[in-house]
Design goal:
Layout (H helix, E strand, L loop, with lengths): L1 H63 L2 H4 L1 H5 L4 H21 L3 E8 L4 E4 L8 H4 L5 E5 L2 E8 L13 E7 L1 H7 L9 E7 L3 E3 L6 H10 L8 E7 L2 E10 L4 E8 H52 L15 H40 L2 H14 L4 H19 L8 H18 L3 E5 L14 H13 L7 E9 L2 E8 L6 H12 L10 H14 L6 E4 L5 E8 L7 H6 L1
Parallel strand pairs: 11-12
Antiparallel strand pairs: 1-2, 1-5, 3-4, 4-5, 6-7, 6-10, 8-9, 9-10, 12-13, 13-15, 14-15
Helix pairs in contact: 1-8, 9-15, 10-11, 11-12, 12-13
Length: 569
Amino acid sequence: MKRFIYFFVFFLLLTLGLFFILNTLGSKTIQESLISASKNQLAYTESIVDNVISEASLYGIQFTADNSVRFYQSRIQDLSNYDAQMKKNDIFDRISEPLLSSQAIDSIGIYWRAEGTFISTGHDPLNKLPFENVKHRGWQTINNSLYYFSVYPYIHQPKNPANIQYVVGVKLNTDYLTSLLNKAVNGESSNAFFLVNKSILISDKMVDSTIEKKAKETITPDTLQILKFDYHINHEDYYVLSKYIEPIDTYLVTYTRMSELMYPLHRNQQVFFVSIVVILIIGLIVILMFYRNFFRNVYLLDKKFNQVEEGNYSTRISANPVNEFNNLFKSFNHMVSKIQTLFASLKIETELRKNAEIKQLQAQINPHFLYNSLFFIMSMAKSSPEAVMQMSKHLAEYYRYLTKLDAHDATLRSELQLAGHYLSIMSLSKRIQYEINLPPELGEHRLMPLIIQPIVENAIQHGIEERQGAYRISIDIKALDDGALIIIADDGKGLTPGDIQQLADKVKHESPPEGTRGIGLWNINQRLINAYGPFSGLRFFKNDWGGLSVLIYIDFSLDGGGQHEIVNR
């Protein structure tokens, strides 16, 4: 321990010395880092602007070469007013589609000079004016807005503007360009702006007029690299970075006030010498506290970990030291408690899974269900071959799914298909109508096997068959946040509020009910709770048909079924 204290003192003194040296060199390093970070941000912003430029140019070329636009004038003369309007609507829909996915494009317009027809996604009636004076393709600045114009013929551009058949114009969203400036600044001490044609200023903040003036005088159209300039204005030091964007004749400029960024470093240098004495005193206090408390707590923690390694998961640390070890001990107790709970849940889920597998095997060889189906086939073989074919098909699919069932292959769609085969079989031999509603986007989500079909079977046996005239059953799936809501409803016998509460208490009980009645629902409820949490347990309520509805919530964020997934693997 003494050697450790000596080493700690030596290390503390060495740290203080290195801090002094690093603090001296820090000023230069920070400046270089800030400039490098600003250049990276500027380059990143420039890349976004380049993508915006490419996107706008691409749309201009795309719609210039579009057949609907090219042949519009020749076809419009042979069409009725209604067909002509529908042709315009089709072109309007085409040029409106890019605006749905692009924030950078403000509007797209097409102007046919021969007849003066103008179709635009913008709503301003003055949007047509910029198109009337276009003489060639390329970027233009009109009314402080950037346009890309493409003309037809495109490959061989007419030397005489009068020969231009139509003009496609793409207007950039100035607000979007302004929002990009936030990506180019480096903290509150920085600002950025676009300088178009060295005359139009685009910015979302007030730009220092002196900086603007000096920037216009010094920046040059260098397309290869980011240029840096240093300005000293009003007793303040600034560094200015600029990058020329050639296609739109625009400069992206950022400027940063250095004094504000360097102020914390200068203040640290002034406080450094005073802090040395304070650090030494604090260091001695820390050494004393370390010497008194560290070894005792580490020894206790090591002892408890050894007990956990030996399988004693009920061990806990009762000590409550007034230091960082308090949280560590709490974390240890929480960890051991979670491990103990996990093993208990794992044991329960293993037993439940065994029960579910037994129920599955029983369903596979259920003679009552199979014999009824076979007797139906025999009775209908002569009178209704079509019914025999349907029963045979659904029966084969039903048993093929059960015999090849694998928990890793079970999905919401496959489980509903199993329920559908079961209901089809029952509807052939009984007067039953059913409906299954599944949103397509939920079909491939994984689900524990044999959850839905047993509830459907229970609804028929204990609901529909016990009420005269009952014949309806529905399975409705609804998307909900990160999961799905499964509602199985029938118009059968139904239950009173007291019976519903009694059934809910029975399935929520920790131990299964006595006898065989109700054990299936209890088993499903326990599997759901262990796999997807307490919110996924079975819920019962009376529906509008007068029968019983069963509600299940499945949380898909627990891929594969939470703890159920652990057991299967």
